[in-house]
Amino acid sequence: MKRVIAPASGGSQRKTRAEGEGTIRPFKIRLADGRVVPWREGLEGTVTLFQGRRRVTIAGKSERPTVYGVTRREVGDQLATIRGDVKDGVSPKAGKDTLAAHVAEYLPVLQRASNKPSAYRRNEELLRLHVLGEAAVPGVPYIGNRKLGDLFARPKLIDDLYSALHTCRAHNTIVHVHVALHKALQQAVAWGKIPANPADRVVKPKLRKVNIQPLDAEQAKHLREVARDDDLEAFWILALTHGFREGELLALRWCNITSGDMVSVTHSLARAKGVNEYELGQPKTDKGNRKVRLSAVALKALERHRQRAENPSRDAFIFTRPGTPFPLDADRLSRAWWALRKRAGLPEKTRVHDLRHTAATLLLLQNVHVKVVSEMLGHASIAITLDLYSHVLPDMQQAAVDAIDRLYPDAA
């Protein structure tokens, strides 16, 4: 349908425009004496917006956004963009929020949806410190005060942030910053604030693989002997022999030991806040909820630990802060590990988490099937196990070659 529009000034020419195309006219300004006159070098355009046959309204009023430009084509292109965005479900006021305002709206939603308190806190910290700029570092172009529309139009602003962060932050930290920012901006897309995620159009930093440094078999045996008289012997042995995560062990209660030699992993300690506060979350992955059969060496260490605890109740935590029923906190665990590591003569860079890597590596070298090892560790998929412990594969391949030679002995 075409509408016939009479020219603003006299004349016989008549112009037509399509319904919903909008109106373009000279941009008018108000002078000091109150007169309204056209601005000779500018045009303004307005359009009534529709989604299908429904008129777009805000607070019960028809929405007629106004744009400005120098040429009719420039103004017409802006109106066409707005009409296209509305057709795609994007608000006509999209992009006007600053990133900081959007993040303030997004974080409470993320917190309610998250079943892992530590994961939420990590996302909040990454955005607050490295994107919004609370821990301001000179020379870093933080983007918290940038409007979402600016980021959508100029994704290079995000690239510039990452480039500057590379001068003062670890590479893998920037990878995690990108993941957190991408999620926040994706929610802005879902809420109709911007038509697409600008973080999809930047140079994505890739996670660098960290070379793990597990103990060898002799070091592992020596550590077991040194830990024999340690108050946390059972913790070290469970990590060393079965590869449990730190948070999983700290969240264990005596009732999780079932059927004599099985342990059920159902929670992970997110953070022990204070003397009488702690948070329990879900294990790191869905497959982290698992049952693991314990070895004789682990069961004996647990029995000695139970005797030291003077037969605690079934609901009591296995590893507690001295003199309290509350779970051991990460700081005390770290201090205990530093002392044990020194007594065992292990390399200074050996972490508690390396005991998990040691368990996996030694099991694979003993030809335990990688699927079984993956299930024991609670990995989300066997591919993660294969990728993490690819350093073991050459030795395993030699075992495979030896098996083939035994199968075909006459080939020699």
Describe it.
The chain has 412 residues and is of the alpha+beta class. The protein has helices spanning 72-87, 99-113, 117-131, 148-153, 156-165, 171-190, 217-226, 233-242, 246-250, 296-308, 330-344, 353-365, 370-377, 382-388, 393-407, and strands at 2-5, 15-18, 23-30, 36-46, 50-51, 54-55, 57-58, 61-62, 66-69, 257-258, 262-265, 268-274, 277-281, 290-293. The chain folds into three domains: 20-87, no CATH class; 99-201, Orthogonal Bundle (DNA polymerase, domain 1); 217-398, hpI Integrase, Chain A (Orthogonal Bundle). It contains 15 helices and 14 strands. It is elongated, with a radius of gyration of 32 Å.
How would a crystallographer describe the biggest sheet? 3 strands, antiparallel
Task: Tell me the count of domains.
Answer: 3
- Number of helical runs? 15
Give the ordered list of helices and strands. Answer: EEEEEEEEEHHHHHHHHHEEEEEHHHHHH
